[in-house]
Design brief:
Distance between the termini: 62 Å
CATH architecture: Beta Barrel
CATH topology: L,D-transpeptidase catalytic domain-like
Number of helices: 2
Strand content: 25-35%
Number of strands: 14
Helix content: under 10%
Largest sheet: 9 strands, mixed
CATH superfamily: L,D-transpeptidase catalytic domain-like
Number of domains: 1
Oligomer: single chain
CATH class: Mainly Beta
Length: 206
């Protein structure tokens, strides 16, 4: 059983910059490029804003297209996606932010897609215990488009990278999405850096 306080069992995601929907995901010694939401990374996410939620979240389970890929050995619960599977993104519905059967009277998205983005999906435990308000739904790790274009709030990876990642994560893994981009969280200069600045100083610069 994973230790919930084990920092090595955290998947960390951070945008490159405040204006970028590209970022990096890190798990232990491994790291991968990823695409983030077109609406940025937000602590105050709401339904339809295309933002990736900031915070720390559990990873729930996997869904995958068994007609398109062979799932490697994984530790999260997993099941194949069926043609009648959808995900409710309608805050008015009692099934909001849940897997539903389609056709369905409430707004939803199809899990069975032709573009391959949902050939492999990891469900992020965001606003699901229980779903509340209009704080957003259907936050997944999934396969990115070929050009790594922004998502509608999910975190997307190259197909081979996600296939590698799902073999590493498990029920004890948490996703930690930083609200600040990496360009704003650089460590402060060390004493050695300040000493080097004085060593390079030339009085003629005055």
């Amino acid at each position: 059983m994973s230790d919930p306080h084990d920092s090595s069992d955290v998947l960390t995601v951070q945008a490159d910059s405040i204006d970028s929907a590209l970022g990096r995901a890190r798990f232990g010694e491994r790291q991968w490029r990823c695409a983030l939401g077109a609406g940025g990374v937000r602590e105050d996410k709401v339904e339809g804003d295309a933002a990736t939620p900031a915070g720390k979240f559990p990873l729930r389970r996997l869904y995958y297209r068994n007609d398109r890929l062979v799932l490697p050995k994984v530790r999260l619960p997993a099941r194949p996606i069926a043609e009648h599977d959808g995900w409710c993104d309608d805050p008015r519905s009692p099934s909001y932010n849940r897997l539903v059967r389609i056709p369905n009277e409430w707004n939803h998205e199809k899990m069975w897609r032709e573009d391959g983005l949902y050939d492999l999906v990891v469900v992020v435990g965001y606003n699901d215990d229980p779903p509340e308000g209009e704080w957003g739904s259907a936050i997944f790790l999934h396969i990115a488009r070929g050009d790594m274009s922004p998502t509608r709030g999910c975190i997307a990876f190259a197909r081979d990278d996600l296939l590698e990642l799902v073999t590493l994560i498990g029920p004890g893994t948490h996703l930690n999405v930083h609200s600040l981009p990496s360009t704003e969280t650089e460590p402060p200069p060390s004493d050695d850096d300040e000493i080097r600045q004085f060593e390079d100083f030339d009085e003629r610069d005055w």
